[in-house]
What does this fold into?
Amino acid sequence: MNLIIRIILKFFGEEKIDTLMLLVTSILVSLIQTSGISSITANIINTVKERDQSKIYNLLRYFVFVSIVYLIIFYLYRYYQNNILTKLLQWIRNELAYLLVKSNNEDFTDKNFFKFNAPINRISSVCFMFISDLFTFIIPNFAFFIVICSYFMYYDLWMGLAFLTVNLLICIYVYLILPTIIEKNDHYEKQFSENEAYFLEMLNNMDKIVYRGQSDYELAEYKKLIDKTISSSYDFYSYMNNQGTILNVYVYSIIFAFLYYTTGQVLKKKINVVLYITFITIIILYRDRMATIIQQITEFVEFSGRANGVLANFKDVNYDFETIYKPVKLTFDKITFENVSFKYKTKETYAFQNFNLELLTNKKNRSGYADDKEVLYAECDFVEFLNSADPHEYLSGFNKFNFDQ
It folds into this structure.
């Protein structure tokens, strides 16, 4: 997951202004929903019972004003969210291409770069969905939770602390079951990948299968893989459904306890009716938000599983190339290659042998040498000598072993 984390953190670093504004507007939206609209709604309900027309219309005007402010802030929230998400997908593709090109080395000798298209698309989609859900669900819901905990503690410290504690217990429970969820999802993703690979292999060799009379055998083998995939899929989703049910029961237990406590407080006249109605409105919003969060747990685990399946394609990518290969001002006039041979670590045959070339450092030089579809490009920007059979390379009189690249 290092690659995905690196990409996401770099994106946040480049988009820190929009990210900060998104966080601020998200908190403001939650504040207006709780202490603004919910409180005014409770006051209107209570005033209607008193039949005070003047007060009712004043509250309605105040409600309209707060609603307009809410719409403006929500528009800004969506504006910054769209700024980030519209750029995100293409930015990720560009970043992956940049990493591949910049960190290309001999470890990529046998790579078919056309096969990177599907992994790049999949990682781009995973990162996009993750960040999209982060900005659409996680940040707003986290801001809402902080706001309502603060609101409850402001009016009743012990109730607010109890509400915070029981929700932290939910987080601990999710943390404890997360390894099992990931394990089951990884097993499902592995079975799905094997199924997909076998299917593609069947399509690629369809003429051979039919010619050899192996149709029934191949279909039977494919059916076995399908059954395994269905079984692992059912195991994962049924487990998630069971855990989701447990979490929902826990959330509703919190809601029932909260309603019982606040009802007792209003009957004892420790809180007024307006605050009581405000609390009920907020707890209903809390119920809806928690239902969304519980649903998102499954999606986030699926994102992670899909990403892990394709990250193996990028295991040779060097993330630190920017710090390893630093530009150096050359102090000599030319670079001379004399009788240089080279082969990749993964191959036994040489890519070139007895190569001779002279490069001038005061201009851009490029020379190509082709053998068995492999090309050596030697440039003044960066020179690397590896596995020379007879190393007599000189850099304007300096032996290569005394040269700090």
